Write the structure tokens for this entry.
Amino acid sequence: ETVLTQSPGSLSLSPGERATLSCRASQSVSGSYLAWYQQKPGQAPRLLIYGASSRPTGIPDRFSGSGSGTDFTLTISRLEPEDFAVYYCQQYSSSPKTFGPGTKVDIK
Amino acid sequence: QVQLVQSGGDVKNPGASVKVSCKASGYTYTSYGINWVRQAPGLGLEWMGWISTYNGNTKYVQKFQGRVTMTTDTATSTAHMELRSLRSDDTAVYYCARDNCSGDNCYSALWYWGQGTLVTVSS
């Protein structure tokens, strides 16, 4: 089973600042089959990034993903008020499709 | 538009079973697999398994083997997840989520999610 570790566990930033979230895998994620999700309280997760760096239609371009192998990054270039949430990475290159523990981004 | 609508919340006694449904609309149901993910209160996301809506093939996480059954009903475009021998630590919101490709070797993120179903296990 591929274990995902996310850092930091929480991040306090102000609107307009840049957020950099890390996801590290215990073994290489083949095909860069790595996704990022955003979850707000009381809501289902929302897909932000798939294939490590691709955005679904409708996801703002301030969200970007990068990385390969075992190290991946989600960057939010300028935080908007609606971006304060919990972010999870997930690998789907091998079963089980594991999630990281999440990074909470809150308002400073 | 793609929609996944789940059944309502439920309260169960320890040792009982629960069946959660996920009704799909807005796309060809048998073209994409359905995953089940749960989230205990205040905790992270846990992938439980997947079912092919095309042929009913399943993949379950080892920890749930023997306690979970995922099924699909093409007549009603509905996927079901039954969890048996419930324990207090099964208290969670259960989500269904759709793949964006088909086949048993589909590598897909979870593109569309249901609204979640809260299952509470308590005596």
The mean pLDDT of chain A is 97.
